[in-house]
Structures are given as C-alpha cells and as structure tokens.
Amino acid sequence: MNYFTSRGKSFLYAFKGIKHLMLGEPNALIHLIAAITAVLFGIYFQISTNEWLWICLAIVLVFICEIINTAIENLGDVITKDYNKSIEKAKDLGAAATFLAALFSIVVALIIFLPKIKAFFYTI
Ligand SMILES: Nc1ncnc2c1ncn2[C@@H]1O[C@H](COP(=O)(O)OP(=O)(O)OP(=O)(O)O)[C@@H](O)[C@H]1O
Fold first, then answer.
1. What are the Cα distances from residue 89, in Å, to 42, 53, 71, 84?
2. Long-range contacts for 6-9 (Cβ within 8 Å, ≥24 apart)?
3. Which domains, ranges and CATH numbers included, belong to the chain?
4. Closest atom of ligand 1 relative to the 85 alpha carbon
5. What would you report as the CA-atom Rg of the chain, rounded to the nearest whole angstrom?
6. Is the C-beta atom of 86 inside 6 A of ligand 1?
7. What pTM was estimated for this model as a whole?
8. What separation in Å is there between the alpha carbon of 9 and the centre of ligand 1?
9. Topology versus the membrane, per the UniProt entry (predicted)?
10. 14-22 contact pairs (CB < 8 A, 24+)
11. Ligand 1 atom closest to the CA of 80, numbered from 1
C-alpha cells in the first residue's frame, strides 16, 4: 500500500469513528446541539477571535473526551460484561474526563456569553 493510499484510509477510519459516535452515542447529539448553539450565539454577539478560540477549544475538548470515553466503554464491553473492578475504574475515569470537559465548556460559555446576554437585556 503506498503512502497516499494508507493516509487516505486513516482519514476514512477517522470519519467512520465520527459516524459511530454520532449514530451510537445519544450524548454526542447533546454535545452537537450545544456546540451549534454556542456557534450561533458567537455569530450573533460577534465575539472576538480570542473568544472564538476558547469556544473552539471547549467544543473540541468535549468531543475528544466523548470519543475516548466511548472507545474505553466499547473495549471494556468486549473484555467482559460481568462485573470487573478494573473495567469499572476505566469506565468511571472515561466518564470523569467527559464530565470535566463539559464543565469546562459551560464555564467558558458563561464567561463569554453571560455579560453579553446581560447587556442585551439591559438595552432592550
Ligand atoms: N463490566 C463492568 N464491571 C464493573 N462496572 C461496570 C462494568 N460496565 C459498566 N460498569 C459501571 O457502569 C458505569 C456505566 O457503564 P456503561 O458502559 O453502561 O456506560 P454508559 O452508561 O453507556 O455511559 P455513557 O452514558 O457515558 O455512554 C461505568 O462507569 C461503571 O461504573
């Protein structure tokens, strides 16, 4: 397999991963709706380049954590469906990563949008 074919296949596998996430994980839909809402707010309030960077970081971080969490869950389920202390710990750690990323994105959204939303209501 030449270099370009193998690189092309890597992209294909990555897109397959995104498809597994969007079709198989209900949480991913919630993240997507939250991301679209943040982008629409960003456009409406004409946020600065720096603010866009924080919003992008928050969105990407949540998706990366959800993807890794889903991968851990899938691997854990293949190893055993029976109770296993290590699988419990691994899955809980994956869930904790997603939770922290979601918390971070909420804090970022509040810091950026709350003052703008307040100003919006004071001017109408
Ligand atoms: N094989 C196992 N052994 C021990 N505990 C487990 C096992 N599988 C799941 N758990 C526990 O149940 C929790 C939920 O695991 P599960 O695989 O059902 O994730 P989920 O509910 O689909 O999570 P998410 O909502 O993030 O997709 C884990 O965090 C872990 O505490």
1. 37, 33, 14, 9
2. none
3. 3-123 (1.10.287.3610)
4. 4
5. 18
6. no
7. 0.91
8. 31
9. Multi-pass membrane protein
10. 17/67, 20/70, 21/63, 21/66, 21/67, 21/70
11. 1
Kindly give the confidence (pLDDT) of every residue in the chain, 124 residues in length, as a single tens digit, with 9 standing for 90 and above.
788 888 889 999 999 999 999 999 999 999 999 999 999 999 999 999 999 999 999 999 999 999 999 999 999 999 999 999 999 999 999 999 999 999 999 999 999 999 999 999 988 7
Question: Are 42 and 96 within 8 A, CB to CB?
Answer: no
Tokens of 44: 């409406």
> What is the whole-number distance in angstroms between the Cα of residue 100 and the centre of ligand 1?
17
Structure tokens at 18: 């995104």
State both tokens at 26: 């209900």
